[in-house]
Specification:
It is a single chain. The protein is α/β, with parallel strands linked by helices and about 400 residues long. The chain has a domain of about 150 residues: 3-Layer(aba) Sandwich (Rossmann fold), CATH 3.40.50. The strands form 2 sheets. It has a 7-stranded parallel sheet, with helices on both faces. A 4-stranded mixed sheet has the order 9-8-10-11, covered by helices on one side. Helix 4 runs parallel beside helix 5. The termini are far apart. About 45% of the residues are buried.
């Protein structure tokens, strides 16, 4: 019996996770067939990907990008085999492509929620790198999964590590999950120094190569707050059973502690291609050229408790995991707007958690929203966070 070939639809193919996923495809080409690629505005990168991987469908953000992509493909002689679509409808077409059996959702933002839902309903397994799917709509995804045979394979290194440690184990024998955090570039920086950090400093992550938003979220530890929410929905455990420990070396990616007191950890050098490949192969171990662990070289692994006062976004994430409902959608939207403003130089680094907290404080909470209500909360939060940023610019916050 031959090895299974996965037919992939990659959403967010020109971003950090998408491009690394295509590196995995290059390394083990006999295991994957790319049938759909979706991107935003990076038309030339997408055109090169289409030329190399020859998908049947390509999707871009809007009509202008669609026109530019078609022009680029014509210049490359690649128009005969690919259909080009744009916008939300195009994205959903890629997520439900009839030839695909695995969808990698590497989109950024709440735009990733609907494609995940539709892919699962269409019988596709989903390799999930889009945090917002579970942060914004974890309760919705749980309901969808309960009614279908599709599965989610997490791409985050931390949640992938937990899946690996749980192999052959029962969740009712788990005492707690321990997510590790690098601590980001400001782990040792004093609280009074945080207002002066620059976007360039925040984007200089010590261990990982990621997109700009997730890199800033790592610096504020909001990313780890998101991961607490994700763990709550992926593994069905309460927030109180999910701990976070700072591990600057990023060698141990997560730990599972069992009821008998034993604990299993997954280790590797920081390399997102490993959890991407593990998800795309549905947990099958496939040989690849990865750096082997050298324990003597590592010599020492260190751990410390997170500082919730310097990094209040982590506490906000725990609150979202406990409350659910619209809390996650508002938290995510306010964070996205605040991070963008920080990168543009409109606000200080320490304004980010203040904007998130203030937006959450006055939002109209709903405990069991549907997709429309979640997206409405998202839109409201973006408007309110933007208003707060304008107030800060006028010296009013």
């Amino acid at each position: 019996m031959g090895e299974r070939v996965s037919r992939l639809a990659i959403l967010g193919s020109t971003g950090s996770i998408g491009t690394q996923a295509l590196e995995v495809v290059r390394e083990v080409p006999d295991r994957f067939d790319v049938v759909a690629l979706a991107a935003g505005t990076s038309v030339e990168i997408l055109a090169r990907q289409i030329e190399e991987f020859r998908p049947e469908l390509a999707v871009v953000r809007g009509a202008e990008e669609e026109h530019l992509l078609l022009e680029s493909l014509r210049a490359r002689g690649c128009t005969s085999h690919v259909r080009v679509l744009s916008g939300r409808d195009g994205l959903l077409s890629a997520a439900t492509h009839e030839q695909a059996d695995m969808v990698l959702n590497a989109l950024v933002g709440s735009v990733g929620l609907e494609p995940t839902i539709e892919a699962l309903r269409a019988g596709k397994d989903v390799a999930l790198a889009n945090k917002e799917t579970l942060v914004v709509g974890g309760h919705i995804i749980a309901d969808v999964l309960a009614g279908c045979s599709s599965r989610i394979f997490p791409v985050d290194s931390e949640h992938s590590a937990i899946v690996q440690c749980l192999s052959g184990e029962s969740l009712d024998r788990v005492r707690r999950l321990i997510l590790t955090a690098s601590g980001g570039p400001f782990r040792t920086l004093g609280r009074n120094e945080l207002p002066r950090v620059t976007p360039d400093q925040a984007l200089n992550h010590p261990n990982w190569r990621m997109g700009p938003r997730i890199t800033v979220d790592s610096a504020t530890m909001m990313n780890k707050g998101f991961e607490v929410v994700e763990a709550r929905w992926l593994f069905g455990l309460p927030a109180e059973s999910v701990d976070v420990v700072v591990h600057p070396e990023s060698i141990i990616h997560s730990i599972v502690e069992f009821v008998d007191g034993s604990a299993l950890a997954q280790m590797s050098y920081p390399d997102m291609r490993l959890p991407i490949q593990y998800a795309l192969t549905r947990g099958e171990r496939v040989a690849a050229q990865r750096r082997s662990i050298d324990l003597c070289e590592l010599a020492r692994l260190t751990f410390e408790a997170p500082d919730y006062e310097r990094f209040p976004c982590l506490s906000i994430g725990y609150e979202a995991a406990r409350r659910g409902g619209t809390f996650g959608a508002v938290m995510n939207a306010a964070d996205e707007v605040a991070v963008s403003a920080f990168l543009d130089g409109a606000i200080r680094f320490d304004h980010i958690p203040r904007i998130i907290s203030e937006t959450l404080r006055i939002h109209r909470y709903e405990s069991n929203p549907g997709v429309d209500e979640v997206l409405a909360s998202d839109r409201w939060a973006r408007r309110h966070a933007s208003d707060l940023i304008h107030r800060i610019a006028r010296g009013g916050m």
